[in-house]
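Course assignment 3, question 2. Fill in each field.
Student: A.L.
Task: Predict the tertiary structure for the chain below.
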Amino acid sequence: MTTWFITGASRGIGRELTEQALARGDRVAATLRQPERLDDLAGKYGELLWRRRMDVTDTAQVERVLGEAFAAHERIDVVVSNAGYGVFGAAEDLADEQVERVIATNITGSVQLARRAVPWLRRQGGGVFVQLSSQGGHLTFPGFAIYHATKWGVEGYFEALAKEIEPFGIKTVLVEPGMVRTGFYDAAERVPVSAPYRGGPADTPALPVENMVGSQSGVAHAIIEAALCEDPPLRLLLNSDAYDAVTATVRRRLAAWESQRDLAYAADTDYVGA
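Answer field:
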């Protein structure tokens, strides 16, 4: 039996992961801001589901709830950092509070959760840390700048962290889905563009459902399979749209770098003025 710790378990991929893990007969320590939203699962699965109120932007609360979860379970095999939040609009138009809240939730909250989970995982001899990222950690869309900033930050932090904690038997998985049919986009804030941006790249309509090819249940199943395999991948690129877009972006980026090879090497030499 596997024991999971999952943040943001109230909806979307977090809720789906919780449901699928419980259906497998696993134990789940689920955290969310409104624990009553899992009343139906508590009634169905009883003691297999452990719930606590937790806001990932409250570092003291994260530390306390993590400690309670590890104390309540003999072992936690997989920690899933899933809580996330989006604000879409031209970067200039976002309010300072919106910028700060997205950063606090998507990157600072993830970093602080990992920093506090690693000592527990190390003491028990290992485990898996799953961090929800996005195709948006490799490419960008106008109107999503602050969201991309957090996902690119998550990618860098957890790639470096993975190397640090692997000697302790802790594996790290960055999950990079494409556009998945979840409630994430419905819950995201949208800021109307100001006059200078109207009709420009940032003035995009709400994302149409038909563009969301990813299956929520399919993504959750893939995460479970990856987390429990013998050698979990560092990056888990999911959904056909993400695969096509990210691989094409990386190829274009590599071609641009290759065209700059002579310039890059020339910068090794001291510049002598004309």
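Instructor remarks: The CA atoms of residues 54 and 61 lie 6 Å apart. The longest strand covers residues 170-177.
Grade: pending
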